[in-house]
């Protein structure tokens, strides 16, 4: 039995930052994640993709953001159960919880914080015969390391932000990038659409619309795709490729958490955002993209804010007779559980005093 103060389900950016905020309150955290490493989508789906809306970082790669968060929480010595999915939950008479994973690992905590992002993901796959035969042999549904495509011939299918963004990025990496979309209009950001059209005019992206990939072929790995134009002539184009990347989005699913008796709305967990992001079950909170409330924005920085308020509420729930006086880290510094301390500069402390 693993015991902790706050059990965090989901080790993405919001879950990781929760460890820091809890650590400032001297609360110990343990995280469960179905992925084999911390970081959530940022580590698993787009570690090399830049993020632009993290405060104080004009631009930061998703993977670097995860690495920085891991470094930030190191003094608070979080525990991890990775490669296992939170399966069942039991509420005990004292109000605490036992959460069991799909591999039978049990965790006991007075507080459960669900920070599972959008849940588990399955890629939306186009209905192409034999497509599965080439998965991991030239067909992939997400880009983890762009260097894998350096000097290669790549076909991307899709009309959303991911398809546009990766076409733009790989235009300077791959030998040839072809973007195929079934309509002439795109669903992504207008500046990305303009950039793709600009790169097309410069000869850096082959843009084929309206069209669809209808066949894939190859001996032991993917060697070619057949593109059919969506026009009256139904023109077909046979293209030799090294990689085919359908980017039609991911289907999020809450998984077993959906059966825990939580109030669910449109595949998200309803919370009270007027105070602490608690669910309809006292002691269980939901923070980050997994929750919903009026005015909800699914941004990493919003998850950080929600984690901060949640930890304050969790402290009061665990220690109802204690009064916590918040101290700014610029004044009190950061003290790890191992006794290590990052002191606030004396000049700053004096100025604030």
From TrEMBL:
<keyword id="KW-0285">Flavoprotein</keyword>
<feature type="domain" description="FAD/NAD(P)-binding">
    <location>
        <begin position="5"/>
        <end position="294"/>
    </location>
</feature>
<feature type="binding site">
    <location>
        <position position="121"/>
    </location>
    <ligand>
        <name>FAD</name>
    </ligand>
</feature>
<dbReference type="GO" id="GO:0050660">
    <property type="term" value="F:flavin adenine dinucleotide binding"/>
</dbReference>
<comment type="subunit">
    <text>Homodimer.</text>
</comment>
<feature type="binding site">
    <location>
        <position position="41"/>
    </location>
    <ligand>
        <name>FAD</name>
    </ligand>
</feature>
<feature type="binding site">
    <location>
        <position position="330"/>
    </location>
    <ligand>
        <name>FAD</name>
    </ligand>
</feature>
<dbReference type="GO" id="GO:0004324">
    <property type="term" value="F:ferredoxin-NADP+ reductase activity"/>
</dbReference>
<dbReference type="InterPro" id="IPR023753">
    <property type="entry name" value="FAD/NAD-binding_dom"/>
</dbReference>
<dbReference type="Pfam" id="PF07992">
    <property type="entry name" value="Pyr_redox_2"/>
</dbReference>
<feature type="binding site">
    <location>
        <position position="86"/>
    </location>
    <ligand>
        <name>FAD</name>
    </ligand>
</feature>
<keyword id="KW-0560">Oxidoreductase</keyword>
<dbReference type="InterPro" id="IPR050097">
    <property type="entry name" value="Ferredoxin-NADP_redctase_2"/>
</dbReference>
<keyword id="KW-0521">NADP</keyword>
<feature type="binding site">
    <location>
        <position position="289"/>
    </location>
    <ligand>
        <name>FAD</name>
    </ligand>
</feature>
<dbReference type="InterPro" id="IPR036188">
    <property type="entry name" value="FAD/NAD-bd_sf"/>
</dbReference>
<feature type="binding site">
    <location>
        <position position="14"/>
    </location>
    <ligand>
        <name>FAD</name>
    </ligand>
</feature>
<dbReference type="InterPro" id="IPR022890">
    <property type="entry name" value="Fd--NADP_Rdtase_type_2"/>
</dbReference>
<protein>
    <recommendedName>
        <fullName>Ferredoxin--NADP reductase</fullName>
        <ecNumber>1.18.1.2</ecNumber>
    </recommendedName>
</protein>
<comment type="similarity">
    <text>Belongs to the ferredoxin--NADP reductase type 2 family.</text>
</comment>
<feature type="binding site">
    <location>
        <position position="33"/>
    </location>
    <ligand>
        <name>FAD</name>
    </ligand>
</feature>
<dbReference type="GO" id="GO:0050661">
    <property type="term" value="F:NADP binding"/>
</dbReference>
<feature type="binding site">
    <location>
        <position position="46"/>
    </location>
    <ligand>
        <name>FAD</name>
    </ligand>
</feature>
<keyword id="KW-0274">FAD</keyword>
